[in-house]
Amino acid sequence: MRSIFISHTTADKPLATLFSETLRLGGVPVEHIFYSAQRSTGIPAGEQAETHLRERVRSAKLMLELISETFLTRPMCLMELGGAWALGVPTFPIAVPPLKPMDIASRIGNFHTHKLSEEAAVRQLFDELHDRAEQATGLRIGATGWGEAVDSFLDRLPSALAARSTDDDPDARRDEATDHGDGLVSSNYVVAEGSFGTEVRGELENTTDSSRSVVILSATFYKDGANIGVASGTVGRLGAHQRKTFTLTSTDHIPVHDRISVQVDNWM
């Protein structure tokens, strides 16, 4: 069971990854962590994103929310937060700088929020998170290993905060949808480096009353108007009015690019 749900935006992925790695380094088994940006802890390829997320929120014992300015503009993140409250899932909200707890309180309500502002606040955050993680997993988590993980977190925190994306970053999540015709709509693209090449992850929706046995997709990478690489993949068994996640993979690692274009090459 994935007991701890890390809720975050793609723009805050470096920080979310740091939290996920710190939990594991501190003694939380990977099977207890749901972190959507990593394949080993996220949504399996071919699964319906909304259904899978709903199930994960419902089964979570603790939701760790990285609340940034971007988080507050993302409907999916706010739905995860609201879903946790509605289902009585314990939450652990964290204000991501430069956002302050008072800023969050004025936007979505006044509740206890942890800070990443200085070392003492971070250590206090992890002291409480240690106890909450034990409650969520039902496991005893050793203090020595946890303390070493917190020390590593503090060392890496400045670079993780500096690496966060902005809405203008071409690799940041794109919430707008792309209509490919024939009732197929893709959205929520994320570019990440995989084990074998550069990956484009996203969601594909079939808006028609007919199912699709297989949909073949590709993503083209551009730099200064020139095509510098392609990633490809498929989505199988896409039912009527169904949404599934996809992962498109290139044969090698794509260098820095300006933009991507996702297209449906064929379907049957």
In terms of topology, how is this protein built?
Elements: E1 4-7, H1 13-25, E2 33-34, H2 49-59, E3 62-67, H3 75-87, E4 91-95, H4 101-108, E5 114-115, H5 119-137, H6 143-162, E6 178-179, E7 184-193, E8 198-206, E9 212-223, E10 226-238, E11 243-250, E12 259-267
Parallel strand pairs: 1-2, 1-3, 3-4, 4-5
Antiparallel strand pairs: 6-7, 7-8, 8-11, 9-10, 9-12, 10-11
Explain this structure to me?
The longest helix has 20 residues. The chain contains 6 helices and 12 strands. About 3% of the residues have low confidence. It has 2 domains: 159 residues, Rossmann fold (3-Layer(aba) Sandwich), CATH 3.40.50; 90 residues, Immunoglobulin-like. The strands form 2 sheets. A 7-stranded antiparallel beta sheet has the order 6-7-8-11-10-9-12, with no helix packed on it. Strands 2-1-3-4-5 form a 5-stranded parallel beta sheet, sandwiched between helices. The chain has 268 residues and is α/β, with parallel strands linked by helices.
Query: N- to C-terminal separation?
Result: 36 Å
Order of helices and strands: EHEHEHEHEHHEEEEEEE
Give the DSSP E fraction (strand runs of 2 or more residues). Answer: 25-35%
What is the fold-level CATH name, i.e. the topology of the largest domain? Rossmann fold
- Summarize the biggest pleated sheet: 7 strands, antiparallel
From the alpha carbons, calculate the radius of gyration and give it in angstroms. Answer: 19 Å
E-strand count: 12
Task: Supply the helix-strand structural class.
Answer: alpha/beta
The number of helical runs is: 6
Fraction in helix: 25-40%
Average pLDDT, to the nearest integer? 84
What is the CATH class designation of the largest domain?
Alpha Beta
CATH architectural grouping of the largest domain: 3-Layer(aba) Sandwich
* Strand numbers in spatial order across the main sheet: 6-7-8-11-10-9-12
| Overall tally of structural domains | 2
Instruction: Give the overall form.
Output: globular
Protein name: TIR domain-containing protein
Domain TIR: 4-125
Region (Disordered): 163-184
Biased composition (Basic and acidic residues): 165-182
